[in-house]
Design brief:
10 helices, mainly alpha
């Protein structure tokens, strides 16, 4: 019963579209009219405010970490029950009823969930993996997917409990579903790779 409570809490918190509300309240803009059209924190920056972007990222991250933290600290939930709770904030963000079930990708919320699961090690390793991928190619969605794959390898190599890689697979599946159109073309190499190839040929 406690697992259901925290899962529902995760869904509700995850569904709160902080980035969209910040755009509406403080910028008087619909951030979905910018960039990729998603109600995510990146489009808060594109709409005109780097400071509000940082606030939006933090809010989107903490709505992922808070239910995961509290489920462990207050109710002692772990293992596969925690896996259910950990997927819910990202699911809520991606299919927010406040936005007619057309939410964002949930990248910041995913980082927040892993903050709740592994403390700072989770988002740091995932961030390094995503950043490493972005060095070689320009499509940020491909970089995110590639970085999550790298993080998955890290979890397996370090022999974390099986439920943790399964959580990551769930997060990756949600991200893929939300942005499947980006995967109809191959990753685009960064310009420096092209220059390197031309120099060596």
């Amino acid at each position: 019963m406690l697992t259901v409570f925290w899962a529902v809490t995760g869904l509700v918190l995850g569904s709160l579209p902080f980035s969209y509300w910040i755009g509406r309240i403080f910028l008087r803009k619909d951030i979905r009219q910018f960039g990729d059209g998603a109600p995510g924190a990146t489009n808060v920056a594109r709409a005109g405010s780097k400071v509000l972007y940082i606030i939006a990222v933090l809010l989107d991250a903490f709505k992922g970490s808070v239910p995961v933290w509290l489920a462990q600290l207050l109710s002692g939930i772990t293992g596969w029950e925690l896996a259910v709770v950990a997927v819910c904030p990202v699911l809520g963000h991606a299919f927010s009823p406040f936005l007619r079930f057309k939410g964002g990708m949930g990248v910041a919320t995913t980082f927040g969930v892993w903050l709740g699961l592994l403390n700072w090690l989770g988002p740091i390793v995932m961030g390094l993996c995503v950043g490493f991928m972005f060095i070689f190619q320009k499509n940020w969605v491909w970089s995110t997917i590639g970085g999550m794959l790298g993080f998955l390898i890290f979890l397996i190599v370090m022999q974390y409990p099986v439920y943790l890689p399964v959580i990551l697979v769930g997060h990756t599946a949600i991200l893929f579903f939300k942005r499947y159109q980006y995967f109809t073309s191959w990753p685009e190499p960064q310009p420096w790779l092209g220059r390197l190839v031309r120099k060596s040929s």
